[in-house]
Structures are given as C-alpha cells and as structure tokens.
Design goal:
mainly beta, 4-stranded antiparallel sheet, two-stranded antiparallel sheet
Length: 83
C-alpha cells in the first residue's frame, strides 16, 4: 500500500492498494506535474523493487495502468516535461 498524507494537516489523504500486498516495496512515487496537458488531477506514478511501474489516480485509489519489468528492480522514476 502507498499512503499519502496532507502536508498541512498531517492527516492521511489517500491510500493506494495494489492487487497483492506481499510484493517487494515501493521505492519511489512521483506526482504528475501540474502543467501536464491532461486535466485529471492527483495522478502519480510509482515504481517498486519487483519491477512494477504503476500509474495511479490518487483521489479514487485506482490503478490506471501497470507495466512490469521482470527481473528488473526499479528505484527511481520521473515525468518528462513535454509529456
């Protein structure tokens, strides 16, 4: 699970749950930049030590897309400014 907290209040704002809880840990999350072309807000991408890249809609808690890189540990992720 990925838990997202409100920095101003310290309260938990969102919980993102994957299909299986027994996987290797999430190693980084990155919010989509506000200037992105899409009007959908609260979108982030996460990567995990088991090779998964997950694209999330945080407000609904839904996983929008999953990419799996078998036998490849992922430790960082970023968005490209031009989409």
């Amino acid at each position: 699970s990925i838990m997202i907290y409100n920095a101003l209040t310290g309260k938990r704002a969102f919980v993102l749950k994957g299909a299986q809880e027994d996987r290797l840990p999430t190693t980084q999350v990155r919010w989509r930049p506000q200037q992105a072309l899409s009007k959908t807000k609260n979108v982030l991408v996460s990567v995990a030590a088991d090779g998964r890249v997950l694209h999330w809609h945080a407000s609904s808690g839904k996983c929008l897309h999953e990419i799996v890189e078998p036998d490849n540990q992922l430790f960082c992720v970023d968005y490209v400014a031009d989409g």
